[in-house]
């Protein structure tokens, strides 16, 4: 599943090629994604619209045009492909933005859990965006903020960290990795974390997300000119998906445990 770093790398890769591009036509081949694509409305508002910016809020990409904003979410298996000229379609290429240069942006999504929606002029009032927590890479996500929020919750810290109302974009993979780096047990109740532990955890989450974005930026350097699938940084993970593999710090086997129905990985020696 694309997580925050993959979405941010997608944004950074697309921006240079679609910034100021003018949409000539929108083609929706399959409107039934997670929510029905408002094809008629989108086609109308996007005709001859210039893309003014692409920003990201959590895992949502926000494309700005003169009339307002449209949103793209990659869901479980979505991927955006930029093509400088027409090429054969894949059966999962559900949406196509055709630019006046004949270049095109295709939304590919085999499982169809993603979204393409029109948000209008006030994107942050939309129900999908209105209640999101702070951005993990912003200064608003700091030890003081996390400690204040943690004090009020008895949830396991791993589950708590994945709550999008607290902080956005930390999914299962990066929650496991951040807790390992910070040396905190994933089942520790949030309200038992000290301010120092919150500091370590914030630092770890930012470090891991930044590293993943930087690595994505390297491996996906030619992303905008290819239709290859992006790599999801599995090479840099320390604990996620590594049950029984020796811990990189202490050599004891990594433990796998289900927490809140999600596979979780940790080292019981390094994370006490
Ligand atoms: Zn260990």
TrEMBL record:
Origin superkingdom: Bacteria
EC number: 3.2.2.23, 4.2.99.18
Gene3D superfamilies: 1.10.8.50, MutM-like, N-terminal
Active site, UniProt feature: 2-3, 59, 262
GO MF annotation terms: 8-oxo-7,8-dihydroguanine DNA N-glycosylase activity; class I DNA-(apurinic or apyrimidinic site) endonuclease activity; damaged DNA binding; zinc ion binding
SMART domains: Fapy_DNA_glyco (SM00898), H2TH (SM01232)
Entry-linked InterPro entries: DNA_glyclase_Znf_dom_DNA_BS, FPG_cat, FPG_Glyclase, FPG_N, H2TH_FPG, Ribosomal_uS13-like_H2TH, Znf_DNA_glyclase/AP_lyase
Keywords, ordered alphabetically: DNA damage, DNA repair, DNA-binding, Glycosidase, Hydrolase, Lyase, Metal-binding, Multifunctional enzyme, Zinc, Zinc-finger
Cofactor needs: Zn(2+)
Domain FPG-type: 238-272
Keyword Repeat among record annotations: no
GO biological process: base-excision repair
Entry's cofactor comment: Binds 1 zinc ion per subunit.
Domain Formamidopyrimidine-DNA glycosylase catalytic as annotated: residue spans: 2-114
Reaction(s) catalysed by this chain's protein: Hydrolysis of DNA containing ring-opened 7-methylguanine residues, releasing 2,6-diamino-4-hydroxy-5-(N-methyl)formamidopyrimidine; 2'-deoxyribonucleotide-(2'-deoxyribose 5'-phosphate)-2'-deoxyribonucleotide-DNA = a 3'-end 2'-deoxyribonucleotide-(2,3-dehydro-2,3-deoxyribose 5'-phosphate)-DNA + a 5'-end 5'-phospho-2'-deoxyribonucleoside-DNA + H(+)
Pfam entry (one): H2TH
Binding sites annotated in the UniProt record for DNA: 92, 111
Membership in a protein family: Belongs to the FPG family.
Record text on subunit structure and interactions: Monomer.
PANTHER family (alphabetical): FORMAMIDOPYRIMIDINE-DNA GLYCOSYLASE (PTHR22993)
HAMAP family per UniProt: Fapy_DNA_glycosyl (MF_00103)
Function: Involved in base excision repair of DNA damaged by oxidation or by mutagenic agents. Acts as DNA glycosylase that recognizes and removes damaged bases. Has a preference for oxidized purines, such as 7,8-dihydro-8-oxoguanine (8-oxoG). Has AP (apurinic/apyrimidinic) lyase activity and introduces nicks in the DNA strand. Cleaves the DNA backbone by beta-delta elimination to generate a single-strand break at the site of the removed base with both 3'- and 5'-phosphates.
Protein name (Swiss-Prot/TrEMBL): Formamidopyrimidine-DNA glycosylase
Organism: Candidatus Berkiella cookevillensis
Gene (name only): mutM
């Amino acid at each position: 599943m694309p997580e925050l770093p993959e979405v941010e790398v997608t944004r950074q890769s697309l921006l240079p090629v679609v910034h100021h591009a003018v949409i000539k036509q929108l083609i929706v081949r399959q409107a039934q994604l997670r929510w029905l694509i408002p094809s008629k409305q989108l086609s109308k508002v996007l005709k001859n619209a210039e893309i003014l910016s692409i920003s990201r809020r959590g895992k949502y990409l926000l494309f700005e045009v003169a009339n307002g904003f449209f949103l793209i979410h990659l869901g479980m298996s979505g991927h955006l492909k930029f093509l400088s000229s027409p090429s054969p379609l894949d059966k999962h290429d559900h949406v196509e933005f055709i630019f006046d240069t004949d270049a095109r942006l295709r939304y590919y999504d085999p499982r169809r859990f993603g979204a393409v929606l029109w948000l209008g002029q006030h994107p942050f009032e939309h129900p999908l965006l209105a209640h999101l927590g702070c951005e993990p890479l912003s200064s608003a996500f700091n030890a003081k903020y996390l400690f204040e929020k943690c004090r009020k919750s008895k949830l396991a810290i791993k589950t708590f960290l994945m709550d999008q109302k607290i902080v956005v974009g930390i999914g299962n993979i990066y929650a496991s990795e951040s807790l390992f780096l910070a040396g905190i047990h994933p089942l520790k109740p949030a309200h038992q974390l000290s301010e120092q532990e919150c500091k370590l955890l914030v630092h770890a989450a930012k470090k891991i997300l930044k590293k993943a974005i930087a690595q994505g930026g390297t491996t996906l350097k030619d992303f905008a000119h290819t239709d290859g699938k992006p790599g999801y940084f599995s090479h840099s993970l320390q604990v996620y998906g590594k049950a029984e593999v020796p811990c990189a710090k202490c050599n004891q086997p990594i433990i796998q445990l289900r927490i809140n129905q999600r596979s979780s990985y940790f080292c019981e020696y390094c994370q006490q």
